[in-house]
Queue: 3 jobs
Job 1
Amino acid sequence: MILPKLAVDAVILSQQELAADVFRMVVEAPAIASQAEPGQFVQLRLLTGSFVLRRPVGIAEVDEKKGTISFIYRVVGKGTKAFSELVNGEVVNVLGPLGHGFDMTAHHPLIVGGGMGLSPVLLYAAAMQGRADVLMGGKTADELFWEKLYQPVTGQIFCTTDDGSRGTKGFTTTLLPKLLQDNAYDLIVACGPEIMMKGIARIAREHGIRCQVSLEKRMGCGLGACLSCSIDTTNGQRKKVCKDGPVFESGEVFA
């Protein structure tokens, strides 16, 4: 059953800077928290200022008992800058949950994330209750502050950095083939830069392992009406990231 989308005014309970220009916002939205699935997202709207369009943000954490959801986002423009300046007690309008999430039936999945792509897969890691391992990549060790967030909810954590300051020197695709050779993973879940996900999809295909990817596109409405997030799939069909995704089978979007 597809549940109706909700638009609620949510009170901000906390706003924390996790790293330079990276924030975690926790809001009270019990109705959305009770429906949200790993891989889904919401559209946030400021109730003050001159911002008209909503901002799509992946759902990073859910606490159904407290009725809260959280988002981890990077300040990249005027809109996210305005979000980062909100304080406890202020209100944002939250539309969601939106889109389709990840397959939850895997027994031993591997999560692969790079940069802010590690935000929307955090909820999936928690839902797997320790059955998932994580391969995370960043430019430097400072970008892998994610380890502290993933350690309580996941199995093994593997790290790569471009400069070799943490874990294996190189990209996630540098270490991925060895991990697939040494472990019996039955699903890869990936989110991050498109070039990284294309490489992961190729390696997964070479090893005969199913792979799902979470895409990020600019979205005007998040409901499939404005067509701003339309993409071409490998079979020639046009699909909308907001409504048909954001999670797709890798072979559907990457040849």
Note: The CA atoms of residues 115 and 143 lie 7 Å apart.
Job 2
Amino acid sequence: MRIIRAKDYDAMSAAAARLIAAQILLKPDCVLGLATGSSPVGAYQNLIAWNKTGALDFSAVRSVNLDEYAGLTPDHDQSYAYFMRHNLFNHVNIDLKNTNVPSGISGDGECQRYDKLIADLGGIDLQLLGLGVNGHIGFNEPDDHFSLGTHKVTLTESTRQANKRFFPSLDEVPTHAYTMGVRDILQARRVVMVASGTSKAQAIKDAFFGPVTPQVPASILQYHPDFVLVADEEALSLI
């Protein structure tokens, strides 16, 4: 594990974006595993800026997203498919046919389809992650075992509370989601996690300076051979 300490969110975002850009430059047709939420938005903004100057070319990049809310269509303004178009895809020269987000409306057969898709792409070259306040990655919530492939999960109350700011009320926050499994994430050749703010400090301490346990899903990344944590000073304040 390697830790990159950044002063603040902007510095964290720039550092993470440099790692992603380096992957694209080294392998223009790479497979990027992408994340949603507020943590990666700054990194995406840096990538957009570099693409607009011609320094970075997304034309051959393929992407697979971590997760999607169950029951939301791709055009719903709180779906992760919509998020990715709004925050990255519509602003760079990526071919939308090469972008993939789990379907929230296809039913449980979506899990097998998505795992096959990842395998057919040759696996993920770089997986970008955020970190939940309870240590979740993707929507892999604390459990008594580590998940394997893509699966449907019941979202915990803490996760729904964390996401309610995006919805008119907590009642409208979906109760389930489809997510890549821990196995899918671990099989990525490189994993980059971004974390910012004091709200993530305890999760970082538990995940990377405590035991490996499915009660803290991110802790499994201690075993990944090429894992980089990019975090700001507040997020790293307890270590």
Note: The radius of gyration is 16 Å.
Job 3
Amino acid sequence: MSNSKLVRERIWGKLKGVAKPDTRFHLNFGEVIPDFEGSEAATDRITALPEYQASKFAFITPDNCLVELRRRMIAEGKPFVMSTYGIFRGFLYVEPGSVPKGAELYAAWLDGMEHFGRPITLEEITKMGRFDFMVTGASAVSVDGVRFGKGHGFFDLEWGMFTDLGLADDNTPVVAAVHDVQVVEEKLHPSETDILVDTIATPTRLITVERRGRRPRGVKWELLSPEQLQSTPPLRELAHMRGIA
């Protein structure tokens, strides 16, 4: 069993005590990064960051623990892009004024995002400019910024696409929102594909990471299966843009 899988499974055992069940996947952490007790306090720490307050165009993952952050961004009129579940339907864009007052919470849920968010292509995102703030959930994250997802590699794919197009790079602030039980206290050696985060927000603390390495760049096309390419519209779009397919 790989080290990352061991870390995930160890954390998942602790997470069951603080996670809020998902309506579809319950506590199946291999399919969903759940909301957790105290996520509002973790969100408070994120929204207090100068990088958040100065942000004009952000990318947010569809993780359940980020519902409150998405709600606040909608209420504040901060535009953002969010991936759909599994990136199966690409990306959605929420622009200021697109959500009626009072519907912010519904719009922040995945089903609500499907209603209020506008499908957006990579080409359209590129015309809008770079992301100046990125937030993701995680199954686990080490104190030195090594993040573990569900094991499907969706954020890795998103990061690869965005860096390929110059929408994000080593200087883009990346924040991970997790419960305290999801923080791995020991330092881990990042692999060449690990996307290191700059800040970790939990219900009780804010951890600033001193990065020791560079983040990867671009899509690792050789690692993609034909099924992955076929089921991910933005990957097909990027491959076409790059003359790969």
Note: The chain has one domain: 3-219.
